[in-house]
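A protein record pairs a chain with a discrete description of its three-dimensional fold. The following entry can be read in just this way:
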Amino acid sequence: MTGWDFESAVSGEQGSAPVDLRTDQPTPARMYDYFLGGKDNFEVDREAAAKVDAALGRTVTYDVVWENRRFLQRATRWLASAGIDQFLDIGTGLPTQGNVHEIAKQVVTAPHVVYVDNDPIVATHGRALLASDHTTTIITADARQPAGILTHPDATGLLDFSRPVAVLLVALFHFIRDSENPAGLLAEFLDAVPSGSYLVLSHLTTDGPPAEGVARTEAAYENATSPMRFRPRATIASFFDGLELVEPGLVRPWQWHPGDDDSPRTEWLYGGVARKP
């Protein structure tokens, strides 16, 4: 991570104005970074993460985040093998080993990848990490405002929306409230990409986990910049309406094209990959 210094980014010592990192509230990106063993988080994030650990147990928390991470990596590799070389990863979180562009490059010579997150620390971190990569970029934008992403000059400059694009919404939509119309937001993204594009989506579910654990996890995120909402499998399945689900369909992430990545196996998530006809 040459060129990146967390404390300097906070204080503005990298030659630019200080970035407002919203240190008064936990953010999903920084909490996810903590769960993955990262160091780019604050006390407020660790306190909220501790509540999740208390609700689930540290082992379960670890298993859920890594099951999701392994699903993202396998789905990316599968898409690249299917000929997809453009990826729009929305709600990407903080960069860590095995990102989309790294996985895709194992299969495709020069994949074009646009990362999107509404946490400013993600863009600050990512731009330092990707400074020498001309086929990958990261922008600060919110999934609740699709037009701001789809018309962003960094996105339109790197992605050709006349060709198939993989839209990645991995562990994102459980941070979108029902009142924010997740189905409508998803439709805006999919309307912007042509036939042959793909959707990759994973989501925390109420089907399987103990109700008390779900309630306590939601409570731990209640004061975060984006509260969390678990949903039943039927609602998650509806996000794929009108698309062609890739086998084996909507399943636990560890069940989707399982490989030798030692993915943890839990009952807290559903995930799927689908093609736009």
